[in-house]
Structures are given as structure tokens and as C-alpha cells.
Amino acid sequence: MIKTRLTELLRVEHPVMLAGMGGVSYHRLVAAVSEAGGFGCLGASTMSPEQMVEEMAAVRAATTKPFGVDLLTAMPGDLVGQVERIIEGGASVFVAGLGVPTKVVDLCHAHGLLVVNMCGKVEHARRAVDAGCDLVVAQGTEAGGHTGTVATFPLVPQVVDAVGDRVPVVAAGGIVDGRGLAAALALGADGVWVGTRFIATPEARGLPGYKDRLLASREDQTVISRAYSGKTMRVLRNAYTDYFEQHPDELRPFPDQLRRSLGDQAFHLGGDEQTPGVDPEKEGYPAGQGVGALRELVPAGELVRRFVAEAEAVLAKTAGFVQAGPLASQPAS
Ligand SMILES: Cc1cc2nc3c(=O)[nH]c(=O)nc-3n(C[C@H](O)[C@H](O)[C@H](O)COP(=O)(O)O)c2cc1C
User: Fold this and answer.
1) Which of 194, 230, 283, 296 is 20 to 30 A (C-alpha) from 215?
2) Name one Pfam family in it (predicted).
3) Is residue 320 packed enough to be buried (19+ CB in 10 Å), middle (13-18) or exposed (0-12)?
């Protein structure tokens, strides 16, 4: 067992969180992760309000364990109304991506929900904690989906130094197994928030071709592109991302570029295996640089258990590297 401030705060067994991935983290995946002792999080950014309510009910029907819901703060829509539905739906955590959710922090706290913010920079993390967020996810540029420029290894310890004395910090971006969990703990994080690895599971929702492409891709076959939303998003490289790399003058800011990619039939996030008209050479398949490590679909609950068992083995092994010797016995100068 690995116990941290995160497992205590979330009231879960394992410090492994499923990222609230739009288009992917629906009730089957969320329930499987929570039921296995991790923390499942619905990716509601691509759901209608009605669908989000149904999905929360489906999670509750499948497990009594805690779960969260993730929304993108920058998306147009009624954030307060959405958060009220999340509260009624029985989630214990609200996760905000793309911006600090200042106006709903008090509302969540008044109903006993924790507020989590996704952060790509130290300054974001400071603002989130100043606004009352209960934990932050430090997401490095390696991550799939919307992402910044600072890599996980330098980002996590800097966020830990900035806010780790006030809230737990969770590491994200490029973490695909227990070695990543052990490394995150070594960097001072209290757990991990995992996206790409959980797409390659039978429970994940995915468009036609998505999981096959993930399993076939190497670590250098993702690209940060503004082709799909107008904001920087790490996706699998294809003819559509290449086109906009060659024609950057055609890129429009968010949300105009999102309208363009939808109009081009290049972005069907929120669809499923039955969605028609998906062309892998055009489609936006978000994926992180960890993609090259994916070999097969693995049930989500099994993944949670493997993360923990592998991390325990790594931590036990690395502890053995420490030996009493001249350096250890010398007083620090
Ligand atoms: C398919 C996909 C969709 C995502 N959608 C969202 C989202 O709607 N909201 C959000 O906060 N983060 C989103 N992300 C980012 C994840 O929350 C997470 O930070 C990221 O996947 C972690 O990096 P990894 O993919 O290397 O594990 C998405 C990521 C992927 C791969």
C-alpha cells in the first residue's frame, strides 16, 4: 500500500487518479478506476448537461466509491449551473481545466466538494491555491490534450516548492506505469493523474481507430497543434496537423478554430466506436508522449493495481541504493 496526503484527502486506497478526459473518461472507465481503489474522474467537457447527469448516475450505480467530474473552465456555457449539477450528482471532487474556477470554489466547499485545478506553470498553481483550490495537478508538456510548455520533471518539484506546504500536488504528463508513480513521489508529489495510459483500456470510450492508432504509435509521433481547438493540444500527428504546421496563417484563435475542425469533420471528440465519418488522417486523437509504451489494452482496474505494485517494487529497490558511508556521515557544509 502507498499512503500519501492524497489518499487521505480523497479517501481512496491508491494515489492514482484517472484524468477527466473529454471523450474518453465516461462512466465505465471512471467506475472501474474508483472500484479498484484509485480515483475515477468523468471528463464532462464534451458532454451535454443531461448526459453529464446520466453519466454521474451510471457511475453511482456501478460503485459506491468516490469519483470526480472535470470541466474546462474556458469553455462557453453556464459553469455555475454545471457545478450545481455536479454537486447534485454525488461527485466528491470538481476538477477545472483551462483556468482557475474562482467563482465556484465557495459553492463547492459549501457542499463538501474538493476543488482541483490543472496547472502547467508555477504561477497557475499559486493562483489556484490562493483562490482556495484544495489540490493542484501539475501537468507537464508531455501530456495528451491541452498542454503547456514546461516538462513534468522540472514542473513538479517547482510546483511542490511553491504550494506543496499548503495543498497536495499531483503529477501528470507522460506517466504510464509504476515507475512514473515512484518518480512522481520522489519529486515531492502526492500521487499521479493519468490520461493516455487509461485510453488503452477496454472500458475507455473512443472513436473508431483511436485505440489502434495509440497502440501503433511511437513516443515521437505526437505533436502540439492548434489545429483542433485553437489552443495548444498534444495529439497524434497526422495529415491534418501537418497541414496547419505548413499553413500557420490559417489558424484561428479558440473557439473559431474549433468550429473549423468540426466543420472539416476532423474532430468528433465525444463520439464513440460507432461514430461515422472518422478519418484517422484528419481526426484529433489526443495523446501524450507516453504513447510509445502502450502495447495492449489492459483493464483499468488491473492498471491501477499494476501502478501501485510496480511503484512499491521501485521504491523498495531504490531505498536499497542508500548506504551508510563517508558522504552520509559527513556534516553538511
Ligand atoms: C483524450 C484526452 C482528453 C483530455 N481532455 C481533458 C479535459 O477535458 N479536461 C482536462 O482538464 N484535461 C484533459 N486532458 C488532459 C488530462 O487531464 C491529463 O492531464 C493528461 O492526459 C495527462 O497526461 P498523459 O496523457 O501523458 O497521462 C485530456 C487528455 C487526453 C489524452
Assistant:
1) 230
2) NMO
3) exposed
Map out the domains of the chain as residue ranges. Answer: 5-204+293-314, 210-290
In the chain, % of residues over pLDDT 90: 92
Grid cell in block for residue 175? 506517466
Residue 280: cis peptide before it, omega within 30 degrees of 0? no
Give the residue, out of 21, 69, 137, with the most ligand 1 atoms within 8 A of its beta carbon, to mutate for a pocket test. Answer: 21
Q: How far apart are CA 229 and CA 254, in angstroms?
A: 6
Q: If phi over 0 gives left and psi between -120 and 50 gives alpha, with beta otherwise, what is residue 329?
A: alpha
Q: What is the mean pLDDT of the chain?
A: 95
Unique residue bearing C-alpha cell 478526459: 21
Whether 220 contacts 233, CB under 8 Å: no
The domain 5-204+293-314 belongs to what CATH superfamily? Aldolase class I (3.20.20.70)
Ligand 1 near 118 CB (within 6 A)? yes
Nearest to 255 by CA among 18, 117, 74: 74
The grid coordinates of residue 11 equal 479517501
Q: Is 21 in the pocket of ligand 1 (CB under 6 A)?
A: yes
Q: Per-residue pLDDT averaged across 63-73, rounded?
A: 95
d(CA 93, CA 68): 4
- The DSSP bridge pattern shows strands 233-236 and 222-225 to be antiparallel
